[in-house]
Design brief:
The complex is a heterodimer. Chain A is mainly beta. Chain A is built from no helices and twelve strands. The termini of chain B are far apart. The chains are: A mainly beta, B mainly beta. The interface between A and B is medium-sized, with 22 and 25 residues.
Chain lengths: ~110, ~110
Amino acid sequence: GDSVTQMEGPVTLSEEAFLTINCTYTATGYPSLFWYVQYPGEGLQLLLKATKADDKGSNKGFEATYRKETTSFHLEKGSVQVSDSAVYFCALKKAANDYKLSFGAGTTVTVRA
Amino acid sequence: NAGVTQTPKFQVLKTGQSMTLQCAQDMNHNSMYWYRQDPGMGLRLIYYSASEGTTDKGEVPNGYNVSRLNKREFSLRLESAAPSQTSVYFCASSTDREATIYFGEGSWLTVV
């Protein structure tokens, strides 16, 4: 079935460091891909998404490119801040009009001042 | 500006007890969802409601029932709680299946 695998955490970084969180997926067809973020004590929020191959999603300085050839959707940010400390989830929908989101296990990121 | 509101936020149950998690959204969304989050497993869909009056099973429906009470409210019921149902539960909603899904803050449930 459809699944998402993301790098295990926790990840600890210093402010202004470069962040990469790897995400690969297994799915037939052309899934839509998402990154969600969960700040401490809050629910999940959509960070960015991409719905077709080679699309790049971006938001709040984060970027991820939908790579069909490597079945990947890695999340990157060039210079992290303490406020980026959160749990990040990679997710996919089998098709844009599917109800079900399949999530990765989540990666906890802590940024130190 | 409430969005998706879940109650209760924390609950401890004894094995065999029943309880209902309540969820309400004020965004006039058609679709609503219940997910559970377990360590190392991400979020898994329990049930969803595509629109008022309909409900469907997700990935892990066993041991749960749901009710779409009206367009705003979608409740999740545990009839006979088991320790395996210890988890964090998230309610979510969206305009339709193609739209962004908005999540509540979560309900922490412990079954002892």
